[in-house]
Amino acid sequence: MHLAECLASLVSLISRLIQSAKRTRMSMLCWGEAVVLGALEAVRAASVLQHRPIQALAAHRASFEQRYCTPRLTGGRQWICTWKCALRLWRELQRFSNQMLRYERMPEGLVHEIGLPAHRAMPDAYVTAHHLRDMFNEASLDQLLLWSAEPGLLLRIPSGPERGKSWDQVDLPVVQRFLSDRDRDVRFTAESVLARRGNAPPGEDIATQGSLL
To answer: In 3D, which of 57, 16, 14, 66 has the Cα closest to residue 6?
Structure first.
């Protein structure tokens, strides 16, 4: 990826967005300025990633970040999703949002004030870094990347009359009902539960799936 090429693409995108915006002149200018600033930050990030020996990127719910940090900007680097990895490593916990993990786990060295307010870039990155550090104390980089490449392995039933129950608390027909769920994480979890019970769906590798829970 060449920086000049990236910049040209971003400028072209900005032009198309501004031309298609149906806003007043003043609001369009403000909106366009925000897009330009975001584009410049993206170019700067791409430049940094090009020249550093970075093995992977990390984020909580990394799929959201990947919508904006495309392979063209990241150089195709792999991602660690701390949400997916937390579901594998800390299954005794009740909540797995980035900020709830900090309250349930109380990571060593985390300064409460720096991690606030929630849902802001710097505080969230600060909290995520502490989760990631502790994950590396329990699993290898390869293992974290493997979990991150797969759908999330959910702990509890996400919907319906059994919502909130552990998958181990429900009968086989209930689990099978979720095989056709629209959510990829739910389908993956249902398949994994069935594999562990010895009732894998057709085509599933029971031996592989059975190691997930």
So the answer is: 14
Please state, in angstroms and rounded to a whole number, the distance separating the CA atoms of residues 128 and 136.
12
Per DSSP, what are the bridge partners of residue 56?
Answer: 78
Burial of 98 per CB tally in 10 Å (0-12, 13-18, 19+) = buried
Task: Quote the Cα angle for 158-97-99, to 5°.
Answer: 155
For 4-43, the three-class secondary structure string (H helix, E strand, C coil) is HHHHHHHHHHHHHHHHHCCCCHHHHHHHHHHHHHHHHHHH
CB of 170 closer than 8 Å to CB of 157: yes
For residue 197, tell me if it sits in a domain. Answer: yes
User: Is residue 201 reached through a cis peptide bond, with omega within 30 degrees of 0 on the bond before it?
Assistant: no
What's the domain range around 180?
Answer: 151-213
User: Where are any strands of DSSP class E within 44-153?
Assistant: 56-59, 78-81
* Whether 208 and 175 share a structural domain: yes
- pTM recorded for the entire structure: 0.73
Over residues 168-202, the pLDDT tens digits come to 999 999 999 999 999 999 999 999 999 998 876 65
